[in-house]
Amino acid sequence: MQTAKTRATERGALEAVDWGDITKRLTMFAYRKLPKGQGWETARDIAQEAIMQLLDPAYSDWNPAKETLLRHLGSVVNGLLSNHRQKHSTKREKLAKDDRAVDSSRHPVDERSAERELSEHQFGQLAMTRLREKLAGDDLAIAVLDLFGEGVELAREQGERLEAPMDLVYRARRKLDQRASQVLAELEQEIAS
Amino acid sequence: MKTTGDKRARDFSAARASLDDDFLSEDMPIEVVDDALREAGANPELIALAGAAAVKAALDGSRLSWREEARKKLARARQAIASLPAVARGARDELLGRLEEAQRDPRFSGQLSAAFRKRAPEEATDEELATLLEEIEALRTIASLPPDDDAT
Question: What are phi and psi of A82, to 5 degrees?
Answer without folding.
Answer: -60, -45
